[in-house]
Automatic annotation (TrEMBL):
Domain of life: Bacteria
Alphabetic keyword roster: Signal
Signal sequence residues: 1-35
Recorded coiled-coil stretches: none
Region (Disordered): 78-106
The protein, known as: Putative membrane protein
The keyword Signal appears for this protein: yes
Biased composition (Polar residues): 83-96
Pfam families recorded: DUF2282
Species per Swiss-Prot/TrEMBL record: Sphaerotilus hippei
Membrane-traversing stretches: none
Entry keyword Signal: yes
């Protein structure tokens, strides 16, 4: 059985492919799970005037239509698990909410 030696180009290509695969695997391992999946949640009461994501309730149609800062029925998409840690001066709890709410008076 004759075995032909591999060419230097073939060996270099194989080594490069293995290095790229290892690098990709290591970078994925270092990325948090939520960031990998891109998981987000709607967070009400944190958007600034005109900076909300889509459909902010009655009187609004889509993105950018919130009338006031921290409007209770206007939402922004945020990374999962961060909404209720984000400040909202109009929220009853002082933080973003996972559902629309009636703004408290300042």
């Amino acid at each position: 059985m004759n075995r032909t030696p591999s060419s230097p180009v073939s060996s270099s290509a194989t080594a490069a492919a293995l290095a790229l695969a290892l690098g990709a695997a290591l970078s994925l391992a270092a990325t948090p799970v939520a960031a990998q999946s891109g998981a987000t949640e709607k967070c009400f009461g944190i958007a600034l005037q005109g900076k909300n994501d889509c459909a902010a309730g009655a009187g609004t149609t889509c993105a950018g239509t919130s009338r006031i800062d921290h409007q209770g029925n206007a939402w922004k998409a945020v990374p999962s698990g961060t909404c209720e840690k984000t400040a909202s001066p109009t929220s009853p709890t002082g933080h973003g909410q996972l559902q629309a709410f009636k703004e408290k008076k300042a």
